[in-house]
Amino acid sequence: MAEEFNIGALVLYKNNQLIAFNKPAGIPVQEDKTGDKALINLAEIYTKSKLQLIHRLDRPASGLALFARTDGALASLNEQFRERKVEKIYLAAVQEKPPKEKDKLIHFLKKNPHNNRTQAFEKEQPGSKKAELSYRYLGGTEHYHLLEVMLNTGRHHQIRAQLAAIGCSIKGDVKYGARRGNRDRSIHLHAWKLRFRHPVSGEMEEVVAPLPEGDAVWQAFQEILH
Hints:
By secondary structure, the protein is an alpha+beta fold. The chain is 17% helix and 34% strand. The chain is built from four helices and eleven strands.
């Protein structure tokens, strides 16, 4: 997959401390058991330096992936994430309109390592972790609906599992109840915006990842976002 795009064209933000890329769907952020070339490998070739991943992004999803270029930047961002001072905003194209225009979802998530799937429960279970997100309905087309999702916690497959739990499976996400998969095995979940404080200056930064080009569903939602 590395040959299919120019890694330099994916850069959204860079300075001496941090660098962010707009990850295409289907590429792992870091190496996994498939052995496929990961975004971090390509990014290190591009920067000619060692990078450290700050937050996860599922392989079939697209969007913003942020890496630290220094230990200090990594420590600063890790602390901001831990203290929930980072705003993580996603876009999700779902099959069913949610029951409310906006809502805060609280579930207890439990990961099954055998099938790499996370189950959402209404009440705490042994080994479960509390998960919180807020969503807002932005609009719909004939077949799909667009949600803006703000993550308050960062759990395994959190958005996918919590939206599925309210009957709003993400387009293409057959693991979490979508009727059919996308041809390229992607899902219509996009890491859209990240707001954080620069680790040195302390200034508030906002990085925005444009929606994937050439995708009819995402392009149909472009007008809603403007």
